Amino acid sequence: MRIAVVGCGAMGSVYAGRLASAGHDVLVVDRWAEHMAAIAEHGLLVSGPDRETRVPVRAHTTPPRQPVDLVVLAVKAADVETAALQARPLLAPETVVLTIQNGFGSADVVAAHLGGDRLAVGVASGFGASVKRPGEVHHNAMRALRFGGHGDLDHAEIERVAAAWRQAGFDARAVTDIAAMQWEKLICNVAYSAPCALTGLTVGEVMDHEHIGPVSRAAATEAWDVARARGVAVSVTDPVALVRDFGAQMPAAKPSALLDHEARRVSEIMFINGAVPREAAKIGREAPVNATLTALVRERETTWSET
């Protein structure tokens, strides 16, 4: 496939490098000029537990007018609207757009600008990646990717996209109910994103903390309640057990919201904890735990410049 990855940070670079190594025709777009220059000159180096690969990838700081088969939006949720608008030169009538972000709500933003009939949504779980230096990325975990349609996209197209990712060594599968998977991941994310960002604690420290632990569990339970009230077919029967199992797999991890705060960057909190009260309001309900956590995080971020 001809694939464009818009947003070439750690995760986007891993996606691009693995897809290119499988023989797909890949170009990347990111405003980080030094990273793009290094990739253009030396190729993209991706290292991980299984292998190290350097692959040639076309790199751009702005999207070229080159329509592709698949556009992957791998930016943070806060940047997804800008990325969607910039991606238009990459689109042909048959182009599929795949958006992969933390939290819930990004797909609605993309669909508003690019149309829901071409849009697929991805859920990534168990990934850990970092940029070592411009042009070089490392991943230390890479579990599963699940893709589903946001609107009227033909399921056969989603299957075709998943097959392309499987060729690149990803555990990728097309599913019919991506919303349930998004919510199940969101339940885990709300338990740790805001609590860790506000306290500086790791996932494991929050999980068993005398004071913050109950807040974390309440945020997860509230998200679970909203999902069920919205009619989402989540398979989870015990949200507290879910988030404890999730946290036990990565006790030393720092959620992206905490990493953003350590770098004094605005986080994706409006698409994580902030998604719960927003979705609750659609059915006339409130979500006070997540609303409060979101407000506290946003207040802290008001003094920072978005970078």
Descriptive keywords:
8-stranded mixed β-sheet, alpha/beta, Rossmann fold, 4-stranded mixed β-sheet, 307 residues, 19% strand, 12 strands
Structure description:
It is a single chain. The protein is 44% helix and 19% strand. By secondary structure, it is an alpha/beta fold. It has two domains: 2-175, Rossmann fold (3-Layer(aba) Sandwich), CATH 3.40.50; 179-303, Orthogonal Bundle (N-(1-d-carboxylethyl)-l-norvaline Dehydrogenase, domain 2). The chain has an eight-stranded mixed β-sheet with strand order 5-2-1-6-7-8-11-12, with helices on both faces. The protein has a four-stranded mixed β-sheet with strand order 4-3-10-9. α5 links the parallel β11 and β12. α6 crosses α12.
Provide the low-confidence segments as ranges. none
Strand portion: 15-25%
CATH superfamily of the largest domain: NAD(P)-binding Rossmann-like Domain
Helix-strand topology string: EHEHEEEEHEHEEEEHEHHHHHHH
Q: How many H/I helices?
A: 12
Largest sheet data: 8 strands, mixed
CATH topology of the largest domain: Rossmann fold
Radius of gyration: 19 Å
Counting DSSP E segments of at least 2 residues, the number of strands comes to: 12
Mean pLDDT, to the nearest integer, reads 92
Q: Could you say how many structural domains there are in total? A: 2
Helix content: 40-55%
Highest CATH level, the class of the largest domain? Alpha Beta
Q: State the secondary-structure class.
A: alpha/beta
Distance between the termini: 32 Å
Q: What strand line-up does the widest sheet have?
A: 5-2-1-6-7-8-11-12
Q: From the 3D coordinates, which CATH architecture of the largest domain would you assign?
A: 3-Layer(aba) Sandwich
* Basic shape: globular
